[in-house]
Amino acid sequence: MDGFTGFNTAAAEELPDAVPAIDPFHVVALAGGGLDRCRQRVQQATTGHRGRAGDPLYKARRTLHTGTNLLTDNQRARVEAVFALEEHVEVEVTWVSSSGSSPLTLTPTRPRARQ
Question: Where in this chain does the record put each Transposase IS204/IS1001/IS1096/IS1165 DDE domain (predicted)?
């Protein structure tokens, strides 16, 4: 099921004993969407306009969607520079909560192979 509340409501009415679950794709999509909305809101509040090429938050928009264990040194420096500014704390908190771990310290995990 995706995160659309209409599906959840319909499923609850038709199948009251069913346990709702969201597939991993939609969980990641919802987290990424929340991160984007936060970044856009902070961008608007701090600069008074939408993102432009020279704005640090706008430059980091795609990098913020990359897993921390996949960041290159340049990407890691870009994210650290964005988070160094106090006015971007909201974005950092959202990024940490959407990634499920503390920033820039994630270690790669792999699911166990089925036996």
Answer: 1-96
